[in-house]
Amino acid sequence: MRLYRYDNVGWDVILNEYEVVKETPCGYWFEKYRQENWIVMFQDRRRWTSKTAMRRLAYPTKEEAMVSFKARKRSQIKILRGQLE
Questions:
Q1: How many CA within 13 A on the CB side of residue 84?
Q2: Which residues contact 23 (CB under 8 A, 6 or more apart)?
Q3: Which of 14, 28, 55, 70 is deepest in the core (most CB within 10 A)?
């Protein structure tokens, strides 16, 4: 099984894929599926994310990951607009 997370690097939006190492009743242990040459988020580290939390590090579908990415960017825009004022 894989988990997904969209991130941006400069103006580019990239899809990070994570391989689930272990599934528990409450969440997933996962690690980076493939290494991009120019970005390494969690090199040689396993991470955990909840199955039910509102905000997660990675999601089971690309659609959920995109919804999360858009929400993070809306929040970031709101914060930056406040700083400009």
A1: 6
A2: 1, 29
A3: 28
Q: Are the C-beta atoms of 5 and 58 separated by less than 8 Å? A: yes
Strands 12-23 and 2-9: antiparallel
22, 14, 49, 20: which is closest to 32 by C-alpha?
20
Domain edges within the chain: 2-84
Model confidence pLDDT, tens digit, residues 10-37: 899 999 999 898 999 999 999 876 655 4
Enter the pTM of the model: 0.78
Are the C-beta atoms of 66 and 13 separated by less than 8 Å? no
For tokens 């996962």, name the residue: 30
CA distance 31 to 81: 34
Write the CB contacts of 40 (distance below 8 Å, at least 6 apart in sequence).
Answer: 32
